[in-house]
């Protein structure tokens, strides 16, 4: 996903890496604001303050005017004359409180003149004279931050608070620095006390809201930000943060309204435009998001955060080259910007540059090792690069840092399963589910693992979680079909719609259970499927009619129930070797069989072998389970007594027409039939004339096995489908017909084919 990195603090905290500029008066990380006088008043312009004279003595006669004169000079930028006046006041025989005021103004003047050491001296003198002088503490704290001595601020404010525990300003100031230092529980306690003492103070309420936000207590933060706006509807810093909370809560329309309010208060606020652009992107309005980003960049052209958000927007618009440029520009401006490195990794992943993406994620992790999402993305890229051991280590480290990060646990389960560590994989899946019980991806991953181990009773209920998986192609099926979803209720006298939901092979494998529905007394069973299956299954026992999906949807209300063939073992309580479910349940229509028998009569005498070397190119594991070319099967071409027939349909079928040299050199080259095959019924009729099928993992395997024909399957060394289980050369799904040739880790396909060739020699020796 292109966008923000979620910072995981506990189970639900989700602040982003690029914190918004803080302007909270009591937050120690605030934009620099220096104060002359006042206790929690609304911020005054720099150096502008009202100077009370009631504390001054009436003599010398000119003393009453000194502070007023100094204020006027400061406001005009004449700091040296103003400093001269307050220095006279410091030397004059005035009351300690007046001397404190003079030291505070002197500090302001000296800071403006870049004489920070002297400014610090005056503010410390002010505090010594008036230990409860709030502005001196806050001004000194801001100076310390400006000169890189931020670590000294907490002790300063803590001393202030300890000396005056009932001083609300001291309490709020300490809360602010504790919040900045990530001591959120302590900060919250102080803010709550300060807020209770001064409930109408919008700045304290704002600090309380920010702390709740930082803790990831989004609902509480929303309530607190709304309370600030009730106290001060024009509080400029609140609407953008309220909008950010609503965005993190997924309430995007409300967030966009809050951003609009923020823009009314500050029309040219680039931060608000940037955050609104991100909300627009998340709302699917990438074009509007682009406009908001461009407007923000006209205000602040070289802002790394806006460039980073712009990159996410461009990614959503599929303009990946521009997105990469925006990321790299943000990184050039701010090399330590972890989120930009992360987004660069996302863009590079989308562009297929996985190795470079891994480097970008590693740099993001180096800069922000506390962000779990970075490690998760790094682990996924390493997995895609097939560096599985490294990926597992990354996921393990992510879980060590964030034990509740369920996606890392799920991804670790996938990687360990691919590595053959099934016990570790199961533990990881269960950890993910333990963190989030309704986690469909993890439940489905555990289901397929258990199925691959033959633990069917526990697996089938978990396998139903596929309907909750947002990326499952039939995720919305339950909402589309207007009849009840069958959960195993009695079928006597009831009509049932069977819905093909997945690949052709799955449907063929589970078709063995169709006759059991009729045996349960179903009055009518209709199968909705792809056109390629219609002729083949029309004569299957237990099926009354075959329709396409559109017709099924149009008439779904006429059925009592619907279900998928993949759910039948669960609801029928059928075991894998249930005698009611015959694995060899398919039959070829006699006329069609005779037609194809006549078509192939011209083949020379000898055993006939059907070949399939490529599967569906859209399958997620096609790169591993398909052979690169018919040429990979060249060792079989050297078996002169065999007659080969191509069952390849779709990608790769042209190789049978114009075969590679090893096949072309045969006296009887491979028979190419793809142009004549209309559907799976044709393929089944061809298989019925053969002695053996040799295939990679495709629907043809299930078709041959369900016809009762011997079939040898070439299985990859990576991500083997659950139905073929582990470490065995046969399968309980097709015990009489299927033989498995597994590619071992590090083994080449050429080596596997040599084993197949040897088996052919042995099988057809006569």
UniProtKB/TrEMBL annotation:
Keywords: TPR repeat. Pfam families: Glyco_transf_9, TPR_10, TPR_11, TPR_16, TPR_19. SUPFAM superfamilies: TPR-like (SSF48452), UDP-Glycosyltransferase/glycogen phosphorylase (SSF53756). GO terms for molecular function: glycosyltransferase activity. TPR repeats lie at residues 202-235, 236-269, 338-371, 372-405. SMART domains: TPR (SM00028). It comes from the Bacteria. The keyword Iron does not apply. This is Tetratricopeptide repeat protein.
